[in-house]
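Case 202 in the screening queue. Each case pairs one protein sequence with one candidate compound; here the compound is guanosine-5'-triphosphate. For every case the pipeline is the same: read the inputs, emit a complex structure as tokens, and attach any notable structural observations.

Predict complex for case 202.
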Amino acid sequence: MQVKSAEFVKSSSETSQCPNDNLPEYAFIGRSNVGKSSLINMLTDRKGLAKTSGTPGKTQLINHFIIDDSWYIVDLPGYGYAKVSKKLRKEFNKIITNYLINRENLACVFMLIDARHEPLKNDLEFITWLGENGVPFVLTFTKADKLSSSELNKNLMVYKSKLLQQWESLPLIITTSSTSRIGKEEILNFVANTNASIDSIK
Ligand code: GTP
Ligand code: MG
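Case 202 output:
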């Protein structure tokens, strides 16, 4: 699938303010600075569509982008950024969890993980939370360009075995890089297939 059009629609501070036309929606979530906004720009071939920054905590609110007039990408604020106040972090968490549980047209979440790091406690906790709450997700490793292929494979193996200590099977795993544009086809094909299966049951 190719993205033909991508436009910013609105920022919402809570789920009830999100667009209500019931189009399938895909949310990008993960720690601050993991590369959510960069990945959205790479997928849509629009450099400045989602705002990126070297400083964590750039994305706030729930940001909707309409793609090809038929589905949404949602850029969410990152979690786990220590430098925002505790109160603000709590507020972000509340917004995100409320959105993930209550958003009926949420087709899937792309849960982003920095491929360079060992499994981090708050990422693992977040994955557990998604599983326990029945939120469908794809594990999406980012910044693959920063590793050699052997380092990348090693880190993926470590992550998978960590997850298999807790789960019987693994979710879909996609490796990406916004700079070398790895993973674009795989994500867009996954979205196209998911949209088609949603259409077929309507
Ligand atoms: P918040 O909105 O703060 O939660 O961050 P985010 O997850 O949206 O991250 P963002 O896309 O703003 O990227 C953070 C930093 O990582 C920026 O400096 C990006 O240029 C860099 N970055 C993102 N993706 C990649 C990647 O695939 N490869 C490399 N080398 N750098 C990346
Ligand atoms: Mg962002």
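Case 202 observations:
- The chain has a mean pLDDT of 92.
- Residues 86-102 form the longest helix (17 residues).
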